[in-house]
Amino acid sequence: MITLETIRTAHDRIRAHIHRTPILTNQTINELSGVHIFFKPENFQKIGAFKARGGLNAILQLSEQERYHGRTMGPVTTHSSGNHAQAVAFAARQVGIKAYIVMPRTAPQVKKDAVKGYGAEIIECEPTLEAREAGVREVIERTGAVLVHPFDDDRVIAGQATAAKELIEDADYDSFFDAILAPVGGGGLLSGTALSTHYLSPRTKVFAGEPEGAADAVLSFKSGKVEKAPYINSLADGLLTSLSERTLGYIREHVTDILTVSDAEISAAMRLVWERMKIVIEPSSAVPLAALFKNKAQFTGQKVGIILTGGNTDLGKLPF
User: Fold this and answer.
1) Radius of gyration of the chain (CA)
2) Ranges for the Tryptophan synthase beta chain-like PALP domain (predicted)?
């Protein structure tokens, strides 16, 4: 059970290792959307993505437990298409341990390079969840590494929750926001965002943006069980994972709706942020803004927070 105290403790644990990213606004985007938007730019975060928060909270917590028992912490492992991979590699370096990262061979090269730069060992696999999980099992059998799951882990979710906690706190008072939007892949960020909002700003609604080319969460949200996407094909490479039972439970309890968008809408929103805000975001980051524009009548005149999840995009493969 993730309580408000769990999230506050996670924030205290990781505070020295992360940036408290600011709130950004843009008048042109407000005028185009008819919405007062307040962006939380986690592309400015360590490793260039919010995932640093969850990775650090999980690994620092493991390290605390090992020290309590008088032991030296062993290696860790995970599977990820990029940003969680970087988070685990970065957090492992912070505590001086080895990290083995299973990554799809199709993951952006910029993310692979960053993982190697943090000193982790990459094991490439086919771009399927089954291949990723099989790769992790092999690493665990071979090295005894501890799994830090990308989203199906309350320690990771509590770490991700600190982004929305900061957003709400920095708005100065609760219920400042009518809504907060985040993207959804495996659901770790969305779960954490929904929990922080539930505790700190209970009148604020939480919405998710999801690519049409990886639309499992919207189906799971409606059916109440973990569903597979009808097909997987989206430029939002960080959102191609299905929910877990854990994240689905948090999402169904605390999220108002999941809004799907096309790749063309994602690309247009991404380009708008690049051109008007002069900041680099990756396709997955643009999904909630794309969802807002697609459904702007629903948010007209409201104050809306949007978490820009990261900026680790391959500059040689921009979608515009």
Assistant:
1) 18
2) 15-310
Cα dihedral across residues 163, 169, 174, 177: positive or negative: negative
Alpha-carbon gap, residue 6 to 73, rounded angstroms: 23
- Domain locations in the chain? 4-49+153-308, 52-147
Please tell me the distance from the alpha carbon of residue 191 to that of residue 182, in angstroms, as a whole number: 10
User: Chain-centre distance of CA 201, in angstroms?
Assistant: 20
Q: What gap in Å lies between CA 299 and CA 290, rounded to an integer?
A: 13
Answer whether 4-49+153-308 and 52-147 agree in fold.
yes
Instruction: Look at domain 4-49+153-308 and name its CATH class.
Output: alpha beta
Give residue-wise pLDDT tens across range 225-279.
Answer: 999 999 999 999 889 889 999 999 999 999 999 999 999 999 999 999 999 999 9
Query: How many angstroms separate the first and last alpha carbons of the chain?
Result: 42
| Domain covering 52-147, topology | Rossmann fold (3.40.50)
What's the angle, vertex CA 286, arms to CA 148 and CA 302, rounded to 5?
110
Look up residue 75 and give its two tokens.
């290696």
pTM comes to: 0.95
* Closest listed residue to residue 298, CA positions, set 256, 268, 269: 256
